[in-house]
Automatic annotation (TrEMBL):
Record InterPro entries: Puta_zinc/iron-chelating_dom, UCP006173
Protein name: Uncharacterized protein
Pfam families: CxxCxxCC
Biological source species: Pseudidiomarina planktonica
Length: 153
């Protein structure tokens, strides 16, 4: 038997299937910058370790996911309708991986009985590696991350 993500296009998934694809890494909740030194044809998105105020930095989980848009109107809301914008998501993002035809990574919770332990062990999660925007008041350029934002497979 194949799993839903193996035989359905992203645009064919139910709301529950779509939500299940999120690995919970929290990297979409990190502040991002466009690298002005990058080629103008291909913008390079760089990530900082400064997180949205709603992100619980110790777990990389949103503290008010159902109501997040009320508090953070520009929160990332990835949907089948805006998949062309997936470039601003990290390379490890399941939505981006599937959109690019790469399948889920071995550490993804759907391949590990729902556990995020493999995700954390692989160094993919932002948990414990970021600071809330409430606690940092400096220049975002000083907080560009050097820990992995890419796939390890």
């Amino acid at each position: 038997m194949t799993e839903f993500w193996e035989h359905k296009a992203l645009t064919e998934m139910s709301a529950a299937e779509w939500e299940a694809l999120c690995d919970g890494c929290g990297k979409c909740c990190l502040h991002k910058l466009i690298d002005e030194d990058a080629d103008a044809v291909e913008e390079e998105v760089v990530f900082t370790d400064i997180a949205c105020r709603l992100l619980e930095t110790s777990t990389a989980q949103c503290s008010d996911y159902p109501n997040r848009l009320k508090h953070v109107p520009d929160c990332v809301v990835l949907s089948p309708d805006n998949l062309s914008d997936v470039y601003y998501m990290p390379e490890s993002c399941a939505y981006r991986r599937l959109a690019e035809g790469r399948g889920l990574a071995a550490w993804h919770p759907l391949l590990n009985n729902g556990s995020r332990a493999a995700l954390r062990k692989a160094g993919i999660s932002a948990a414990g590696r970021c600071v809330s925007e409430h606690r940092y008041h400096g220049d975002l350029e000083d907080r560009i991350v050097t820990w992995p934002l890419f796939d390890k497979e």
